[in-house]
Amino acid sequence: MPELPEVEAVRRGVEERLVGKILTEVRVREPRLRRPVPPLAPWIGRRLLRVERRGKYLLWRFAEGTLLVHLGMSGRLAFVAPDVPPGRHDHVDFLFEGSLLRYTDPRRFGFIAPLDADAERAMEARLGLEPWDERLTPAWARAKVRGRRRAVKEVLLFGDVVAGAGNIYACEALFLAGIHPGRPAETLDEDDWARLLAALRALFEAAIAAGGTTLRDHRTVAGEAGAYRGRLAVYGREGEPCPRCATPVRRVVQGGRSTFFCPVCQPPERTAW
DNA sequence: CTTTACACCTGACTGC
DNA sequence: TGCAGTCAGGTGTAAA
Q1: A163 and A197 in contact (C-beta within 8 Å)?
Q2: Whether A144 CB is under 7 Å from strand B
Q3: Which of A156, A187, A218, A241 has its CA 20 to 30 A from that of A12?
Q4: CA–CA distance, A201 with A243 (Å, rounded to integer)
Q5: Over the stretch A17-40, which tens digit does the pLDDT of each residue have?
Q6: Does nucleic acid strand B have an atom less than 7 angstroms from the CB of A257?
Q7: Which of A229, A204, A205 minimizes the C-alpha distance to A215?
């Protein structure tokens, strides 16, 4: 589910209500997430200083230590009234001085883990730059993928150039930039990267403003669906007319995942297949 | 180094 | 209705 805009919508909502508050209680009903939920008792009594986002990861910065939260494919965080009984997939409750933040995750692909300095360094080494990082220039991106013949769409998903794009926004950004998803990453010149980076930034900004894209699971922490879905140009629209040229949108499979694109607005040139 | 395969889970949908 | 098969917004590991 959640890509950068959805995680950012959750980050803002959590920060708004919980910064400065103390974690007073944790209830773990189902510890079997993608990684087992660690003992959280030591975190009780700690004050939450701020909530950061890095790619699709949430970093809960406490006065002592950091908790890393990832929502996986179907994870949600939502504020609920303290007397609402938990449902089948409501795995963890966090109580902060009367506010109940509930973690729900039907597929259990998400995780909650302490993040020490070493683990954070390892994460930083693996992860690409934030879309708005000043170091993320067309020249930097081009150098980063030198020698990689892998398709640009798969490189976007891997997230080691730009962090935060998943399947929806990778497809949408390539459409906005007019770049064929199958082009080997190393064939993009600086002009291509300039358009692609600009497209990603504009797309993420618009999607964040709309509260993200809800296909199925995503909700803001207030429980509202994200409104960006209706603005998707190609994702999930196989056979429908391209909004720019009316050519039917095509679907192909790359790395086992669906890719949607317009064969006219995103001309093939040199493709990976 | 790169690429591929697969594993982790449940639920929604399609076709028979 | 039911049942089997397919697909889904994401990592992370192992093997080739």
Answers
A1: no
A2: no
A3: A156
A4: 20
A5: 999 999 999 999 999 999 999 999
A6: no
A7: A229
Residue A21 is among the residues annotated as catalytic for this protein? no
Q: Where are the domains of chain A?
A: 4-126, 138-261
In terms of Cβ atoms closer than 10 Å to its own Cβ (0-12, 13-18, 19+), residue A63 is exposed
Q: Phi and psi at residue A126, in whole multiples of 5°?
A: -90, -30
Residue from A11, A53, A54, A56 carrying the catalytic annotation: A56
Class of domain A4-126 as given by CATH:
alpha beta
In tens, the pLDDT along A85-133 reads 999 999 999 999 999 999 999 999 999 999 999 899 889 988 999 999 9
User: Is A2 labeled as catalytic in the residue annotation?
Assistant: yes
pTM score, whole prediction: 0.95
pLDDT for the residue numbered A269: 74
Output the distance from A257 CA to B6 C1' rounded to whole Å. Answer: 14
| Level-2 CATH architecture, domain A138-261 | Orthogonal Bundle (1.10)
Kindly report the CA angle at A144 between A141 and A148, in degrees rounded to 5?
A: 115
Mean pLDDT value across chain A = 93
A32 sits within 7 Å of strand B by its CB: yes
Question: What confidence tens digit (pLDDT) does each residue in A248-258 have?
Answer: 999 999 988 99
